[in-house]
Amino acid sequence: MTTRRLLLVNGPNLNLLGTREPDIYGSETLADVEALVAEAATARGYEVRAVQSNHEGVLLDAIHEARHDCAGIVINPGGLTHTSVVLRDALSGVALPVAEVHISDVMAREPFRHHSYVADVAVVHVIGEGVPGYRAATDRLIDHVEGR
Q1: How many alpha carbons lie under 13 Å from residue 43 in its C-beta half-sphere?
Q2: Taking the mean position of all CA atoms in its chain, how far away is CA 135?
Q3: Which entry of 46, 102, 117, 134 is annotated as an active-site residue?
Q4: What is the distance between the alpha carbons of residues 52 and 30, in angstroms, rounded to a whole number?
Q5: Is 112 exposed, middle or buried (0-12, 13-18, 19+ CB in 10 A)?
């Protein structure tokens, strides 16, 4: 694969990072997350296109577009993890490797958060490692893309 770009997708409410429930999500902001992923990707020779939206259709459109110029997708779907079949289908439909990341340990939270519609289409899962988990997800996704 000659494409050396990743799509970073952050779903609903992740624009509130740094102020939303800092006891669960920490004090880092979405800008911090995007910078962390860009730094990790750049160190491996990749660039990143980042999108965050509170609107599912915007995320679907970005995922669809990624099939033209991205090698993989790092995604924190937020609450859509537990509710969105169409998001799962979009990820499956573009046939790109996916890294699913969650800041909190969703399995240690409310029961409705225990199911992920994204899990079966993701090749990488980083759950409950805080914002640094995005770096781990990025590195592991690039390893997968490069066949390591």
Answers
A1: 11
A2: 11
A3: 102
A4: 9
A5: exposed
Low-confidence stretches of the chain (pLDDT < 70) are 1-2
pLDDT, position 2: 57
Distance of alpha carbon 63 from alpha carbon 40, whole angstroms: 21
* Continuous H helices in the chain: 22-25, 30-43, 56-69, 85-94, 132-145
Report the amino acid identity of residue 23: D
Residue 1 has a pLDDT of 46
**pTM, 2 dp:** 0.94
134 is catalytic: no
Identify the active-site residue in 25, 46, 117, 134. 25
Q: Between β-strands 5-10 and 72-76, what pairing exists: parallel, antiparallel or unpaired?
A: parallel
**3-class DSSP assignment, residue 9:** strand
For residue 115, indicate whether it is catalytic. no
First and final C-alpha spacing in the chain: 14
